[in-house]
Amino acid sequence: MTLMLPFDNSYARLPDRFFTRMSPTPVAAPSLLALNESLADRLGLDAEALRSDDGISALAGNVVPDGAEPLAQVYAGHQFGGWSPQLGDGRAILLGEIVAPDGERFDLQLKGSGPTPYSRMGDGRAWVGPVLREYIVSEAMAALGVPTTRALAAVETGERVQRETGLPGAVLTRVASSHIRVGTFQYFASQEDQDGLEALTAHALARHDQGAEGALGLLEGVVARQAKLVAQWLGIGFIHGVMNTDNMTISGETIDYGPCAFMDGYHAMRVFSSIDQHGRYAFARQPDVAMWNLAQLASALMPLIGDVEAAQGAIDRFPALFQKAWLEVYRAKLGLLQAEDGDSDLVQDLLKVMGEHQADFTNVFRALGTDAARDEFTDRAGFDAWEKDWRARLAHEGATPEDRREGMAAVNPAIIPRTHRIEQAIQAAVDGDLAPFQRLNAALAAPFADPGDFEDLTRPPTQSEAVPQTFCGT
Length: 474
Ligand code: AMP
Ligand code: MG
Prior knowledge:
Blueprint: E1 19-21, E2 31-35, H1 37-43, H2 47-51, H3 53-60, E3 71-79, E4 82-88, E5 92-99, E6 105-111, E7 126-127, H4 128-143, E8 150-162, E9 166-176, H5 182-190, H6 194-208, H7 214-236, E10 238-239, E11 261-262, H8 286-305, H9 308-316, H10 318-333, H11 343-357, H12 361-367, H13 371-374, H14 380-394, H15 401-409, H16 419-430, H17 435-444
Antiparallel strand pairs: 1-3, 2-8, 3-4, 5-6, 6-9, 7-9, 8-9, 10-11
Helix pairs in contact: 4-16, 4-17, 5-6, 5-8, 6-7, 7-8, 7-9, 7-10, 8-9, 11-14, 16-17
Bound molecules: adenosine monophosphate (AMP) and magnesium ion.
């Protein structure tokens, strides 16, 4: 069975200084860990061909499929606030773009595919852990309705990767509506490359903002998408963990699932990443960080926008856009269809009591309206007082209780990718058992359904299961 991928590589047609053309580095003995058949269908790709020897060779980077024009993209970025003038795909190769049957264009990228000129001290590889983590979490995000890059496949390489210890290597096939980052614009701005900036802007407009005009139009589009995205993160207890400008997309998709985590017990300032020592990317700081990153994008685009006030105006709209999106998310979580003035306070009051008890974020919202919500709180008086206010507010709504329950269950997931479950799935996979990984993915594909047999996956970790810290995905 031969693999046919309908490539049309618009990024590869940009000037040479946008990337380094090169092929992935072949691996010793590729074998398939996971293939995302529903995503393959959505992209118009033949899952059977992807599963074939030819397919696995392509997904491992051993063979460059017909029509691909492999390259490593260059970018720059602010990492934890510090400026890095040159980053880039240090362990990834963009194979090219394919156009799905519905006309949508997607990047196909191999991650963990060997060293590139942008690898710095790294080996260009990934081990099975981060590859499966990204697979699980990015697919969970998609099922939760959050814009995200996707995972088409994970392949084990048959080679060891040296970390603290030797670990099995793997390659992820990432699908994204593009891999253009805030940091891509920063790279050309810092090179004082006006032509490069113009070419990149035109390319990004064509891919993400076809109705918009010029650099200002693009900036406004990114601001709007990121405001919505971060509001969605806050609505599901997601902490990205490494919101550097090179990890923020122009498309508005979540990218780079390194030290990310979903909170179990709620705390506004929760941090998981071992390298985020000052809590720069704590849960509740994410909107401020997004705005800071967008200001860096505005700076990078200034040579094209020209008008400082217009650029500033676009950035200044972020807080209101975020607040509006956030309230929409949380109104739905509380079963409120109409907007009333006190709604924001009502939400904040609940979050405050939840924070005092570190109540389980996901389970509280899923259980609102039943006794199970109350049981998430050690001292119930605070929650009871809030619930009384909530019931009073609900009395203003027209919906029947059944409709409300249904509406709330459609936005408050039962199952999220809890960190301890991800770690258990990775550990089992390293020991040769993929069943827990497959079961977790199956459950996460329907996060709003009644959990049924997956009830165990709704539970927060026991003390011995808890994973207090997460690590960058290298
Ligand atoms: P990240 O923290 O994942 O966003 O990565 C930051 C930068 O480090 C990017 O330019 C990556 O390409 C690079 N990088 C991360 N891990 C590796 C690795 N194992 N080998 C080479 N480059 C890497
Ligand atoms: Mg990155």
